[in-house]
Amino acid sequence: SAEDDNSPNDEFQELQLQTLEQGMSWDGQPLVKYKGFWLLAMIFLPMLSARKNFKAKDTDVIISTMSKSGTTWMKALTFSIANRNRFTIDQSPLLTCNPHTLVPFLEYNVYWEQENPDLEKHSLNPLDQFVSQRHFLLENKIGKEADQYPLGVDEAFDMFCRGVHSWGPFWDHMLGYWNARSENPGKVLFLKYEDLKEDVTSQVKKIAEFMGFPFSLEEEKQGLVDQISGLCSFESLSSLAANKTGNNLNGLVKNSSFFRKGKVGDWTNYLTPAMAERVRKLMESKFEGSGLMF
Ligand code: A3P
In whole angstroms, what is the distance from residue 240 CA to residue 97 CA? Predict the structure, then answer.
């Protein structure tokens, strides 16, 4: 959009946090609305710094996800694919470190304290997401402690549908990346958590190809694709001490909270068919004509 043409540099100088629309997430975390999305206020400045200063190299791989959509899994898989010639499976750093320690976040890690860090020092279905996010936030208690927070599930779900939650609205992310992929298929790989769950082997091969490191026939014969998929599986990662203890995201969250159930469709245990219908209708009207199926 025309708004996107502003240079982040100018924005950084001119924008005052206070001038933006303010909100509060259902768990009591301050939000600001920026370019149509509700951001956590605490990552606003790091996010602007990243927009202003981050210069991608041709070899960079950026994983872009909505939180609670399989970020941890994607980090583990891409790390394993890219580093498969450096570490054998039984020496993988994933066995001793949480995936977020190995593959940092731009906002929570790289640009958290410094406006222009030395990058060389750094290695770098909506309903399920809502349910996953709710468990994650209730477990980590990042939000403000007050009588009214956290809000109950009905109110929180209403806010989710209105897009008032961290990084909301969800559907605008999906559509944004879908359109980016249509415009530039060689640079954007559009993946759904559900697709990874259905057939991780073929998705791992697809990711490797996209990253420019396709598996050779010999590697496939050695079973490397299955070994990487196995190492990065929910069962494998969630059973490691590195993921059962310790914290991440600058100490804000427990490593263990990144591994809850890892199942598609868990929302049916928490949300009503009427709630699902509301989201289905929202997405239908949002995605109309885009070719994006959900
Ligand atoms: P649930 O809360 O539904 O179990 P993110 O990594 O973006 O924060 O997403 C977290 C969700 O991905 C959680 O979903 C978590 O259990 C699931 N998850 C984490 N690691 C996984 C893995 N290796 N394989 C499959 N799902 C995984």
Answer: 9
